[in-house]
């Protein structure tokens, strides 16, 4: 009986502690046990009524069994409570509580098989308790939260991305697999710390410079709900940006000579129509950067491939596993491209073979690039200037700016 009481106490704690984001992902995968756990979470009176009845049953008969056992061992009757209570507290309450909080997913998925049939056995009592609770709410005039959506289904996410461009999206190198909506005020301190901590190890376009301070700025971009997304193997969120970036730029786009609309100067972008496939976008591993206006509103996005295509014409890019590029926002009307651990090979119309940025500048200049060297591309009206050198990489950091725009606004 002690084991029975501890088992159902552990089930109650495990289901309550179940990660809702992982649960939503499992529901999307049509996991039957996850769906049963979800029903208990959505109907807490069924969960607590079922566990309460079984625990009370086990507690009552367990106390009788322990009393008879202690009497058989010759223990005085008045000492039985002093021995029985610590055993119940430790093995039927504290240990199950620890195990249920420590391994909620495994325990809940295992025990829900037993909870479902028991739920139907005590369904009348559970139904009566639900009515009593509603009656108490009505008497106390407490407004329920029946319309609140705790979890988002895949259809809800697609609909939200199509109709609300102010949502915030979290990306990961594995793709977006789990979802939860929260406003900035609803983010718990622990979640903020976990998110900021995870940002240090993410190969985002900002590279290692994508820190907790940058995350806080992104949190303040909009007051709309965030869409937090998690990889299946990690509980900490990866990184985020407004889903307006997914939907693309306004129809007029952002031109090179439009410094008032954009801090990051782009000539191309990837807009999504209302019928875009979210799953296709989530699987892409191509790095991209964001476009923001002067009010720090992120208004669009573009991949690095499109970035180089606009600057150099007919461009093809391929990645080498040994390196990375990062793009970071600098002053208005400029962009800085840093060569980190991943290396891009760029093929342009005027070049005979694929070249890295360092080799490209070397071909244009006719010599090895040095600090301060620059080259102007008439097709894209962009000047590349070397502002940082590396012994192994050559031109490590190249500063890009639109010459004609700068002259126009100077």
TrEMBL record:
Domain CNNM transmembrane: 1-181
Transmembrane residue ranges: 46-62, 82-100, 107-129
Molecular functions (GO terms): flavin adenine dinucleotide binding
Keyword terms of this UniProt record: Membrane, Transmembrane, Transmembrane helix
GO cellular component: membrane
Protein name per the record: Hemolysin
Species per Swiss-Prot/TrEMBL record: Candidatus Similichlamydia laticola
